[in-house]
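Cross-check.
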Amino acid sequence: RMESAALVCLGACGGALMRYGASELAKRADFGAAGICGINVAGSFALGMVFGAQSSPRVQLLLGTGFCGAFTTFSTFSLDTVKLLQKKEYVKAAALVVSSNVLSIAGAGAGVNAGLQLARVHPQKMGALRVHAPQAFKQTK
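Predicted model, tokenized:
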């Protein structure tokens, strides 16, 4: 559907710009691969919140698939790991792999919990982001 594609594109544009800005800041601060790890953890948290808040399919496309998909970067993480391996920095490579995966999963879990809490505490404010079961059923047909 054209609307779905537009939502993904709009979210991806914002996510890509945020990732570029965050990557540039990480380079200037000389964070190295830790900067990409931080971006991925933040993106995992955000995606977890979208899911935990029981967001509508449209919000999931805009923020989940679009924004978080463009903001996080598995390919850069993979390349950073390969570069460390090529330099024979095996301990650093292993630390990057373990920390990126563990922290990203923890970030996603924390985001889900935060989204669930937000939906419970402020259900009236979540109206624009949430969809009731009958509406969700209609949209998936």
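Residues 82 and 88 are 10 Å apart (CA to CA). The mean pLDDT is 88. Passed to J.P. for a second look.
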